[in-house]
Amino acid sequence: MTTASPHSPDTGPARAAQPDDAGAPETSATAAAAAKLALLVASGATFLAVLDTTVVNIAFADLRADFRDASLSQLTWIVTAYTVVFAALLAVAGRVADTIGRKKLFVWSAAVFLVASLLSGLATGVPMLIAARALQGVGAAGLIPSALGLVLQHTPAARRQVAIGVWGAVGSMAAAVGPSLGGLLVDAWGWRSVFLINLPIGLVILAGAVRLTGDRPTGRKLPDPAGTLALALGVGGVVFGVTQGTEWGWAGGRVLGLLGGGAVLLAAALLLSRRHAAPAIELDLWRSRAFAATNATSLLFGAAMYSYLLSSLLFLNAVWGYSELKAGLAVTPGAFASALGAIVVGRRVGPAGQWAAVAVGSALFGASCAGMYLLLGTERSYAAVWLPLGVLAGVGIGAALTAISNAATASLPPQRFASGTGLLMTTRQIGGALGIAALAAILERHDVLDDEGYLRVFLACAIGAGAAAAAAFAIRSRPVQNT
Length: 483
Description:
With 483 residues, the protein is an all-alpha fold. It has two domains: 28-223 and 280-475, Growth Hormone, Chain: A (Up-down Bundle); 224-279. It has helices at 13-16, 28-54, 60-66, 72-100, 102-121, 126-154, 160-189, 193-196, 198-211, 225-248, 253-275, 289-318, 324-330, 332-348, 354-375, 382-410, 417-443, 451-471. The radius of gyration is 21 Å and the shape is globular. The model is unreliable at 1-25 (pLDDT under 50).
């Protein structure tokens, strides 16, 4: 059960009459329509935000052809700028969403994301593209926690688990389908299309969001600016340092400075949050054993999942000789399988069983990675080996991600959904950065065309997923009654 700390801004009469942050009373038909619209809007925005973490990877060859004077290191910043800013601001954005209103933050974030997508698509040089991608990360960070907050605000308590299942299915599918969709877009229209495709979809999402009712004023204060800055810079420094560790050298001054400085800033943010009336990090959320356990599981699972998604494409391209487009299409069945796993958990697994769904999903994913380590090699075996293992991995990813979100939500009071979601996604992104760094460190010790390095990455993913499955047993706890 989550309890408020002495410094928690959620105590006092300002919250008493508004346990659900709902808007004005609505008829059942109007409420049902609003719930469907909120789910559609939130799912669409989440799809775009998650998609843009992976869709650019497949466009590297096209980017290098257009920007011949740019080094590979400069081009990797096009990906890194987005992921680092995205991770750095997620926790802060969740708190802001619960303070100023989920709809307000969602609309502003969607507008920023669209402007940044347009600037990315029109970029005339790598510096402009990197800056636009960083701005896109700002918008994405605001979209994710406010999107889920909108869903939970407009959805009756009895239907929230199903709604989270759909939302989770879209998010997990976006992460997996990014390479195949990116391959199709780049092959047909070039790298600019992976950014410009956001515009028509985003405008429809923005129009839908404007129609939703907003939150009631919560009476909460905006988070401590000093703690917020320390948190954002600390997370950003750690993620960036881990991301660049292999390329710059782990013992190099730049990496040690980023990791050390990030750790110091995170410690400062934690210290300030213990003393401030409106803390940047709501430490009392972690007093819920279930919520703390979901964060630990999210960190471990994120490390394994992001490493797996990238290594799969690299293996198909480098070892089996698939083109970027063919490699993207080869992993697509796993993307649809992840959506299926998410929907099944959302519809069929009750609140008390979410920890088991996390454990089973993580175990299925880990078993698939172990199977790839044992069965794959230089000889192509797509139908017999890759396809069934990829589908199994997809089911496990979708089930685990959705169950982690469900378990985290069940452990929180409704007025703190966005804050909790922001923290949960932050741990997943940090885990993802650690996983990619581990992947790079392993592959650096092997020939890029040799299968041995990739197989060792799959083994590492299996171990990470197994650790997530083990951590899931700590999630079991009496959920908060979200009514």
